[in-house]
Amino acid sequence: MHDVPRTTHHAPEASTYRSAVSNPSCLLVVADYRFVSVAGQAFAEIPWDGALARQYQPRFSRILLLGRFRRADRVPPAGWFAVDATRYDVLDAGDWTTPLAFLRQMPAIWARLRTEWDRVAVLHLKLFYLTSLLAWVFNRTRTRENRRPVATLLVGDAADAVLLRRDLLPLVWTRRMAGAVVGAILRGVQRRVELAGFVGQFLADRFGTPGRPSIIANESWLHQDQLRLPDRPAPRRPATVLFVGRLISRKRPDHFLLAVARLTGEWDLRCVLVGDGPERPALERQADELGLAGRTTFTGWLGLLTPAMLAVYDASDIFCLPSFAEGVPLVVIEAMGRGVPVVATSVSGTPELVIHEQSGLLVPRDDVEALAAAIRRYLEDADLWRRCARGGHEVARRNTFEAQRGRLAVAISGLAP
């Protein structure tokens, strides 16, 4: 059975990076994570809890989290998690939603890095995020004895993603130029860190440097005790087809609705879309125009592997991800882990999880007819449906939180002085 390819090299001796401070002991994690503080309690969209912190113990005394931060009067809606204050410090570096707002916030972020630097033993950067790049520059501008060893994790092809940003760069040539610049920056950063991380082999092939210390590990949140393979011989009648993700153009939820609509004359289908985003009003209108209004449920965002989210997976018969571009899609791992056969576009890191007709079905991107045909194959062929359910479940078993996060944590901990 196929597994996500992995390449790991030993990192250089961390003693080169001894700090002038006697005993820095914290891991600083930097990305564009969103945090909300209510009466001194921080909340996040992912679970900064004991299970994650224990992956880094006993090497790091605390984990510092630097991302977008704002204060609020009320607790965020369902799907947000309270940050465990006994293990994590959320650093207030302000909030922003646009590149211009980030530029205005840069002096405050720089000052926060300078204030916390004496506590930092290792710097962990998620790429490609503006805050992470600023933290990398900050580290590079320190004197050699005050630099920290850096581990990165590239979570997607940012150079390719720039080509989709018509909102920021309306002209094609400007997007191509920006994509080339972003790609060059990524390669430059990954050559100049102690451990270059990638969530998939396709990213390592494009942005890695042969011979440099590296690791391939994804950020799965699916725990071993959340794995489930139902003993069901075929899709239910009516069958439920599921989409999970941001309701944005790049995820192609409109193609999901078009594909389901092409099958409703032959099959009694229900479709569920989990997620929120700017395209939701248009998608609701589209469902009505396609005659799917009575068959379609928009749930909104249900949170990361919450009981409500797991229940939706369990009630579904086919999972569909028609994205134009992806990193290594964690929702595919989650669906596989709950025994739901997958149809997905053959883009980016998705083929590292989905082996055609073994652990799922792959289709070309932007091909609604192929998407509908793949869903139809599952409905018509129970043997194929069962084979892909079992094969996908084995892939998920090798890509759990414990397996993937544990490998990454061991590698990062090895950089500490």
Global outline = globular
Instruction: Give the CATH level 1 class of the largest domain.
Output: Alpha Beta
Class from helix and strand fractions: alpha/beta
Give the strand content: 15-25%
**CATH architecture of the largest domain, please?**
3-Layer(aba) Sandwich
Question: Key features?
Answer:
single chain, alpha/beta, seven-stranded mixed β-sheet, Rossmann fold, 417 residues, 2 domains
Could you explain how this protein is built, in words?
- The protein has 417 residues and is an alpha/beta fold.
- Helix content is 35%, strand content 19%.
- The chain contains 13 helices and 15 strands.
- The chain has helices spanning 50-53, 99-116, 130-140, 158-162, 172-191, 201-207, 253-263, 280-289, 307-314, 330-337, 368-380, 382-397, 401-413, and strands at residues 26-38, 41-44, 62-71, 81-82, 88-91, 120-127, 150-154, 196-198, 214-216, 239-244, 269-274, 296-300, 318-321, 342-345, 361-363.
- The chain is globular, with a radius of gyration of 22 Å.
